[in-house]
TrEMBL record:
<dbReference type="InterPro" id="IPR000462">
    <property type="entry name" value="CDP-OH_P_trans"/>
</dbReference>
<comment type="similarity">
    <text>Belongs to the CDP-alcohol phosphatidyltransferase class-I family.</text>
</comment>
<dbReference type="InterPro" id="IPR048254">
    <property type="entry name" value="CDP_ALCOHOL_P_TRANSF_CS"/>
</dbReference>
<feature type="transmembrane region" description="Helical">
    <location>
        <begin position="259"/>
        <end position="278"/>
    </location>
</feature>
<keyword id="KW-0808">Transferase</keyword>
<keyword id="KW-0812">Transmembrane</keyword>
<protein>
    <recommendedName>
        <fullName>CDP-alcohol phosphatidyltransferase</fullName>
    </recommendedName>
</protein>
<feature type="transmembrane region" description="Helical">
    <location>
        <begin position="18"/>
        <end position="37"/>
    </location>
</feature>
<dbReference type="GO" id="GO:0008654">
    <property type="term" value="P:phospholipid biosynthetic process"/>
</dbReference>
<dbReference type="InterPro" id="IPR043130">
    <property type="entry name" value="CDP-OH_PTrfase_TM_dom"/>
</dbReference>
<feature type="transmembrane region" description="Helical">
    <location>
        <begin position="49"/>
        <end position="76"/>
    </location>
</feature>
<keyword id="KW-1133">Transmembrane helix</keyword>
<dbReference type="GO" id="GO:0016020">
    <property type="term" value="C:membrane"/>
</dbReference>
<dbReference type="GO" id="GO:0016780">
    <property type="term" value="F:phosphotransferase activity, for other substituted phosphate groups"/>
</dbReference>
<feature type="transmembrane region" description="Helical">
    <location>
        <begin position="232"/>
        <end position="253"/>
    </location>
</feature>
<keyword id="KW-0472">Membrane</keyword>
<dbReference type="Pfam" id="PF01066">
    <property type="entry name" value="CDP-OH_P_transf"/>
</dbReference>
Length: 295
C-alpha cells in the first residue's frame, strides 16, 4: 500500500468546483480517500460501483417513505462519487471506461432517486404534484447535460472563427485567466498587451459581458480564493437541494424545493447561454494582420 499524505489528496482536487462539493463534501471525502488510498486496493471503478449501490439504497429508502435515510444515503453516494476521481488522479488508476461508468451511474442514480421519491410520495398521499415534480427535475437534469456540450461546441467554433479572421496568432484573455485565475480581467489584458512582442492579436471574447456586468469579475476573483466556480447553482447544488435538503425538511418540501431549485438551475443555464451568445457576437468581421484588438 502507498504512503500518501493528506496534501497528496488535496492536490488531486479540481482547481475550482461547486460550492456544495468544496464546503460540504470535500472536507470529508479527502480524508476518507486518504484512508482508502493507503489501506485498501479499491479502484476508482470500484468506488463508482459502491456509489451506485448507495444510490440504489437511497432510491429504496425514498420509495418506502424513509426520507431522512434516503437523504443520508444519497449524500454518501455523492461523497463516494467524489472520491473515485481523486483516487484515479492520485494513483493513475483511472480507465476510459471509468469515465463512461461514472457518467451513466450519475444519471441513473439521479433519475431513479427522482422517481423513487416522487412515486413513493404519490403512492402515500395521492398528490400528483409529486409525480410532476419528479418528471420536472429529471427533464431539467437532462437539459443541463445537453446544454453543456452544445455550449462548448459554440465556444470552440467562436474561438476557431476568431483565429481564422484574425489571420495571425491570437491570445485569448480567458486563457490567461485560466492560467492565473486570481488575476482580474483588466490586469490580464494589460499584461498581455505589454508583453506582446510578436504582434499577436489579443482577444477578450467576454468584453461585452463584463461591460454589462462589471461586478462579475470581482465576484469571480473572490470565489477563486475559496476554490469555488462562478456557476454558483449547478447540477450539483440542484441534486443536493432536491435529494438531501428537501427530504430532511419533510415530504412537503419536495415540490416547492424542486420548483425553486429548478428555477435557479435554469437561470444559471440561461446565463451561460447568454454569455456564449455575447461572445459569438464579438467575432471580428475582418482584422488586419498583426493588428492588436480587444473585441
Amino acid at each position: 500500500m502507498g504512503r500518501y499524505t493528506l496534501d497528496d489528496i488535496l492536490a488531486t482536487r479540481k482547481s475550482r468546483d461547486a460550492w456544495w462539493t468544496v464546503f460540504m463534501v470535500d472536507p470529508i471525502a479527502c480524508r476518507l480517500a486518504l484512508v482508502i488510498a493507503n489501506h485498501t486496493s479499491i479502484t476508482p471503478n470500484g468506488l463508482t460501483a459502491i456509489s451506485m449501490l448507495l444510490g440504489f439504497g437511497s432510491v429504496a429508502a425514498f420509495g418506502t417513505g424513509e426520507l431522512v435515510l434516503g437523504a443520508l444515503l444519497f449524500y454518501l453516494s455523492f461523497l463516494v462519487d467524489c472520491m473515485d476521481g481523486k483516487i484515479a488522479r492520485l494513483k493513475g488508476t483511472g480507465t476510459p471506461f471509468g469515465l463512461w461508468l461514472d457518467f451513466v451511474g450519475d444519471r441513473i442514480r439521479f433519475a431513479c432517486c427522482a422517481f423513487g421519491l416522487g412515486v413513493g410520495e404519490y403512492s402515500r398521499t395521492g398528490d400528483q404534484s409529486f409525480l410532476w415534480a419528479a418528471v420536472g427535475v429529471v427533464l431539467l437534469d437532462f437539459f443541463r447535460y445537453i446544454n453543456g456540450p452544445q455550449l462548448k461546441k459554440v465556444k470552440d467554433a467562436t474561438r476557431a472563427l476568431t483565429k481564422a479572421r484574425a489571420q495571425t496568432q491570437v491570445v485569448f484573455v480567458e486563457d490567461v485567466l485560466k492560467a492565473r485565475p486570481q488575476t482580474d480581467v483588466n490586469t490580464a489584458a494589460r499584461e498581455v498587451k505589454e508583453s506582446n512582442e510578436e504582434g499577436r492579436a489579443v482577444v477578450d471574447l467576454q468584453k461585452a459581458f463584463n461591460a454589462r456586468f462589471p461586478w462579475y469579475d470581482r465576484f469571480r476573483v473572490t470565489l477563486v480564493k475559496y476554490r469555488v466556480r462562478t456557476h454558483f447553482f449547478s447540477g450539483i447544488e440542484f441534486e443536493a437541494a432536491v435529494f438531501v435538503v428537501a427530504p430532511v425538511i419533510g415530504s412537503w418540501a419536495f415540490v416547492p424545493t424542486s420548483i425553486g431549485a429548478g428555477a435557479l438551475l435554469l437561470a444559471f443555464e440561461i446565463s451561460l447561454i447568454y454569455r456564449v451568445w455575447l461572445a459569438s457576437r464579438q467575432i471580428p468581421k475582418s482584422v488586419p494582420k498583426k493588428e492588436e484588438i480587444l473585441v
